[in-house]
Amino acid sequence: MLEHCRWLLYASRFYGCHPHTIDERSRVSVNSRLLLIYSLVACGVYCAAAYYAKGFSNYCDAANNVMMGCALQRINRYNRCLYMVLTTLLSYLRHTEFERAVAIARKFDDLMHNWCADNRRTNRCIQWLIILAILVAWISVGVLTKFALPQMILYTFALQIIMRITFSMEIAKFYFLYDALYRRFRRLNGLCRKLTGMTIGIDTDVSVTHVNRLTISNLQRLHCCLTDATNHFNSYYSPQLLCWITCMLLDIITYIFVVLYELNNTLLICVECIILLYFSLQVIAISRICNVTCDQANALAGTIFLTKTLAFKHIEFSIEAIELGVCFQVYPLRVRVCGLFNLDNRLAFSVFGVILTYVVLASSVH
To answer: Where are its TM segments located (predicted)?
Structure first.
């Protein structure tokens, strides 16, 4: 996973948000105590940053006594710290799930090596562009904030932007990992579709000899590797996703309130609208990548029923194909967050529906 983004994993090791699996190919045992030290130091740094990084406005002074604004300001002040501290601690507590997922994904890559190759150069460019876009986006927000509030202390908004970038990098790592799973499921589906002669939009680079050697047992083994890796990633990220979604919703609600009540600074309102857009894109990104990954994983069931190779025409292989296809349809892959809800496109629509309701109610009160 993250084939060409190891520097991001390495950097995240020092700010405590990743279970120090740097080289997925290495068999070196991990020092849990070292990770614990990194995590505790990172949590202390985040708490100190949250204490000194105040919000854009002050609703808690005597001259501007807005009860709801004061409460939201205090939530926003410590919310940036909360999701990074929880991410760090949960990452440490569940790092074994991540290592199991990486090991299983590595097994899939070893098995898949003789069947088809992936376009890693394109993936590397996309990852670099996403990371660069995150840096440029939040730095631009910091510059605009400084213009909107010239009296604001430099280190205050610098801490805010650094913590926002750090969290967005966590979202990016999650996106890269599930995108890697998506591409592997897609390659497996492309390999299976190659058997039917169907036109596919991915270069599988499979020889006729390899196609003829493919059997249902091979497909099941490859698919089980990816499914197990996805389930381990789900187990690792599930509590973190609940934390991320909750904190992002709190941030969105806070900034909507500020936009509705902060009427004396047009540039600041524009900045806060941009931040709202960034949070919305992050919610859409994690929902979308989970949705397409599960769709690719569950699409293999329909593809298996269409296979017409000589190997599958035998009665025993035909029965195996039917059983495997039915199994995939009865037990579809889903990214479930702490057993509460599925992370897919419907969640994003539900979230924005709740936000729209909040905006209407807040506007009517205002």
So the answer is: 35-53, 128-149, 155-178, 241-260, 266-286, 347-365
